[in-house]
Specification:
Arc Repressor Mutant, subunit A, 22 helices, 3-stranded antiparallel beta sheet, mainly alpha
């Protein structure tokens, strides 16, 4: 069979035809649309990463302090107050070591958490995987800054005198303001932004669903003064380094290169290009898994087989489990995909790993598959809490390495039948990436009411609330 189409595989007898002029060449098949280029004048990624490192230098400094300090007998593990906040003693200790005030220490600590430089596990905190890649991986730095950018309303909470419902409306309207600022490529007068904010808030009120989602706050009066709300939003965006403010005669705002790039990235939905798989056989497990992250399943399995064939099974399984124990959720899932290629020889080590919180859901599913469980029923071996923990862990991988639309679709994978139940159980499960996942989901979801509920849940987790 020489045809590409099996239905056209049989030979046909074609009647002779008189010679005719050679037809014009068929137009070439359309190629895949290349990745869009950033607007002219956008700094190179290395320059943007340098700007992000400079803006997050204080946060990285407190994260390194936490990693070097730790608890007695537990390097890189620091005891925290409820909600992941620094204890008073730890704040005083950090202030003395870093020559800062306790308030500066707490501010830098919160920034480091939101940027993924510090991760909280129950009543302990440790330096996150992003900190280890801070000096060598520009994409990790930029992703950390974008995570902080998405959480600008947590970095700079709204003053108590502003109505919560009005604050929520402004948060929903901010993306349009940012788009205007980015397209302007220069300063925009504050009166123009205030007028645009008013128009957008009016549109949001007109578009509001007839059937409200969850408990609804009191309606915002139509004559609410939006100027203080705009000042608060711009101050929050300036606090994360997305724009600068010039308080001249009437005031104006200008996007920073980082802010302009981040808005463009969100508009274009760029995925960071994966590194080539060439040479993965010689890499350590973590680097090998990163190299296979963007490969199709069959190609990735071929890489896993080649990598496994180059080393003893025992040491290979140990390397894969060590990679899975890291803070990068994507590598955790990929490590168990590689362990599926290993098969039965990995069972003793995987069974032992099922007692570890980070690995338990993955290990239980792997063991069930090895025991012949139906693929459609394999998740039934997990408790409700373990399923929720796995949902958050997978969402963290999508938030770090995937598209926003994938994160929205990930909602369908939750075991909870309703969004309120999902948010309640996500808050209770205690995953260290809960805040970042909820903030990213709120930023990506097109439903304003649902996004508002998710932001509220993120704020409650961040502040240690119920």
């Amino acid at each position: 069979m020489t045809s590409r189409n099996p239905r056209d595989s049989r030979l046909r007898i074609v009647r002779p035809r008189p010679l005719a002029p050679v037809p014009a060449a068929a137009p070439p098949r359309a190629r895949r649309r290349p990745a869009p280029r950033p607007p002219e004048g956008t700094p190179a990624p290395s320059e943007l990463a340098a700007m992000a490192r400079e803006g997050l230098a204080s946060a990285a400094r407190i994260a390194r302090w936490a990693g070097h300090t730790g608890a007695v007998g537990q390097p890189n593990v620091l005891r925290t107050a409820p909600g992941g906040a620094l204890t008073a003693a730890a704040a005083e200790q950090a202030a003395a070591a870093l020559e800062l005030t306790p308030q500066q220490v707490r501010t830098d600590w919160d920034t480091a958490r939101l940027a993924g430089l510090i991760e909280v596990h129950g009543d302990t905190a440790r330096a996150g995987w992003r900190l280890r890649a801070w000096d060598r991986d520009d994409s990790a730095v930029l992703r950390g800054w974008v995570a902080l950018f998405d959480a600008w309303s947590l970095v700079h909470p709204a003053p108590a005198e502003l109505a919560p419902a009005a604050v929520s409306e402004v948060i929903e309207a901010v993306p349009q303001l940012l788009s205007v600022l980015q397209l302007s490529q220069g300063p925009v007068p504050l009166p123009q932004l205030l007028d645009l904010l008013g128009q957008r808030v009016t549109e949001l009120r007109d578009e509001r669903c007839e059937i409200p989602y969850g408990p609804q706050p009191e309606p915002v009066p139509a004559d609410t003064d939006l100027a203080p709300l705009l000042d608060w939003a711009l101050a929050g965006l300036a606090a994360v380094g997305a724009l600068t403010l010039d308080e001249g005669d009437e005031g104006q705002a200008t996007m920073t290169p980082l802010g302009s790039w981040a808005v463009w990235v969100k508009l274009e939905q760029i995925i960071v290009a994966a590194q080539s798989p060439a040479g993965n056989i010689e890499q350590a497990a973590e680097d090998m898994l990163r190299g296979c992250a963007r490969l199709r399943p069959n190609a990735a399995r071929a890489e896993y087989r080649a990598w496994l064939a180059a080393r003893p099974v025992g040491s290979a399984v140990g390397e894969l489990l060590d990679a899975a124990r890291g803070e990068d959720s994507l590598l955790r899932g990929l490590a168990f995909e590689a362990l599926r290629v290993v098969g039965a020889p990995a069972e003793p080590d995987v069974r032992a790993a099922s007692d570890e919180l980070l690995l338990r859901p993955y290990a239980l599913i792997w063991l069930a598959e090895q025991e012949g469980c139906d693929p459609e029923d394999v998740h039934s071996v997990l408790t409700r809490e373990e399923s929720t923990w796995l949902w958050v862990d997978t969402a963290a991988a999508v938030a770090d390495h995937g598209e926003a639309t994938l994160l929205v679709r990930h909602l369908e994978a939750a075991v909870q039948p309703t969004i309120p139940q999902l948010l309640a159980e996500v808050r209770a499960v205690g995953h260290p990436r809960t805040v970042q996942v909820l903030v990213a989901l709120a930023a990506a979801h097109p439903d304003p009411a649902l996004a508002k509920a998710v932001r509220r849940a993120a704020f409650q987790v961040h502040t240690g609330g119920a």
